[in-house]
Amino acid sequence: MSSSYFPAYRDSSPILPEPPHHPGSWRTRAKDLRRRPLQFRQVAFILATVAVSFSLLAFYHYRDASYGSSAHGTNTPSPLTDDSVSYRPSFDNAHIPHNHHVPPQPTTPDTPDHDLDGPSSHSSLSPESPPQPIPAPVTFSLIMFGEGTAAEGAVLLKSIILYSSSPLAFHIICDQVAQEYLERRLDLLKHPQHDILVRFYRIPHEDMVARIDREGAINTDHSAGVPGLMKLFIHEILPPSVKRSIFIDTDAFFISDPTQLWDHFKALQPSTAISMPSHPDQSEPQWHNANRICSCIMLLDLDRLRALRLMDSSFYRGDPNAARVPALAPPAFEAMFGKPVDAGNGRMRYDGVKLGDQGYWWAIVSHRPEIFEHLSYDWEVSSCLMDMYMKGLGDDDASEAHERFVQVHTDDTPEQGRAVLPKMLHFNCLDGVDRYYDWPGWSDPDDGLAQRWLPAVRYHVGYKWLWLNQPESNATLTMQTLYDVKFADEVFALARAGKADKGL
Hints:
Layout: H1 25-35, H2 40-72, H3 82-86, E1 138-144, H4 147-163, E2 168-174, H5 176-186, E3 196-202, H6 205-215, H7 225-229, H8 234-237, E4 244-248, E5 252-254, H9 258-262, E6 274-276, E7 297-301, H10 302-308, H11 314-317, H12 320-323, H13 329-337, E8 341-344, E9 347-349, H14 357-367, E10 372-374, E11 381-382, H15 400-406, E12 424-426, H16 448-462, E13 477-482, H17 488-501
Parallel strand pairs: 1-2, 1-4, 2-3, 3-13, 6-10, 11-12
Antiparallel strand pairs: 4-7, 5-12, 6-7, 8-9
């Protein structure tokens, strides 16, 4: 550095070694300054500084005191009105990015879920804000009989818990074998992220058969058997406090937040009771075209189905008052399958019904289209007939145009022109095994389904239940078992008998 720019009295520093050509220069100057007497101007400057400091302190003290008296007495307008407070952020969630879903608080799972809109939009900073209502749980109704369906269903439950941002309620119609299989895994979940209710409905096989007989003519030759037909009676098995539910076959799992699916209830028309994927491009006359829907996943407005009295019963037909309001299903079944025919042994049956419960659901929504709405294929990426719409894992930067180009089975459907965005995977029609993940095709390196989806299957099947625990969470998992389960028509008959005993 140039010595002309840095004068000699700046060459040295008290925290650096002394330059050899200026030994002790800063100390010498300090001693000289201490020996000099104070000048008049220096004294005046010091006194002025002290006076200004005291003046400022007095000013701020007076201002604060005046604000305090205004707040406790005078009605001085605030620069922040209530409206301006309402848009100020809640700092409890300040770390969460914009538009990121904030998980709701836990709820009592049996609370009626008529309020699907969630908390009201009051300011979290306003002292007058009422307490926010607790959101309803995302509610599922599932059917599992035997260890095979329970093993598949356990993967489904695990995926729901893994991805859910909401409390959950599972209503599982099952037998003892399935319940014990699930309990062994649920017992590993001590600290769930959100409150979970798991309620098992233990219905003996003979009780299911008896309910089918009381309907009068439904039957099945599907591999799902009698338990599969219980999908038509979910609204009768679950209590009236459960107003809506999502039904899903066990050979499926989520790859996204199920809260998104639950939110679809908000968009349904008031008359809608059922929403499921529809495929108007499909045709199979020997099935009465029942492959035009998939009852593998359904949004069920259970309240609406109860009000419509979906299924018939000899208990209803035997009551003069109840008989005045006919059940919805029989006219629909007869319109598609004709009058019931003699099945022997004093039984009647509808002829030509295929695909189990799906054949009956197809008759219902065909006859009463006003109670039905289409559900997006995003929630039914199926290996049966639909070839998963040719979706699969791969290039993570694939464009929407590319996804539309490669997908199949969407022309002439409600999904034509949009890219299917997989949110739930359904591995049905993988024949020869009890559990879809044991299908031999997964080990075939040339199989297209395995090439596209094997990593997803391995991940979700192999994800350990123990890993679902969140040690810092205060949420709970509650398991309940109902043994004496009554169908709605039985409850009706018992109530009628009680009134008769009382002479009413």
